Amino acid sequence: MTGKELDLKYFKNVLKEERERLQNQINQIRKERPSIGRQGSQGEPLSYDDDSGDTASDVSEAEKLSALEKSVYELLSKVEAALLKIRKKTYGICESCGKPIDKARLEVIPYATLCVKCKAKEEK
């Protein structure tokens, strides 16, 4: 293997570890999400017209966790797509120009879909 060739087995393992980490993170977020509308701190049912600062705090926390969960799901989707590309033998190819993505870039962002040049163009 030359320095420019990709070790697909290595990247497959990296992506599988990242997938597991992200799935664990999603599970942890779900455990932390407060039970909005189910019960208050004393076990009594909550309603959204309570004048409780706790209810507003719980809603705010739930919104933050939902946003975080969405972000983690998006990243997990990119990891799954990269694993599929490995199976299809298209991993490491820029989706824009069709040239190989630099190995150093993939080591930093193993689910990258664009080479550095095309990513820079996209960001402009």
Topology readout:
Layout lengths: L7 H25 L20 H36 L14 H6 L7 H8 L1
Tell me about this structure.
The structure is a single chain. The chain is mainly alpha-helical. The chain folds into 2 domains: 8-89; 92-124, no CATH class. It contains 4 helices and no strands. Helix 1 packs antiparallel against helix 2.
Dominant shape: elongated
Distance between the termini: 35 Å
What Rg do the Cα atoms give?
21 Å
- Estimated helix fraction: 55-70%
The helix/strand order is HHHH
- The quaternary state of the protein chains shown equals single chain
Hey, roughly how much beta strand do the residues contain?
under 5%
Query: What's the rounded overall pLDDT mean?
Result: 84
**Low-pLDDT segments, ≥5 res:** 37-41
Largest sheet: none
Task: List the keywords.
0% strand, single chain, mainly alpha, 124 residues, 2 domains, 4 helices, elongated
Summarize the structure.
The protein has 124 residues and is mostly helical. It has four helices and no strands.
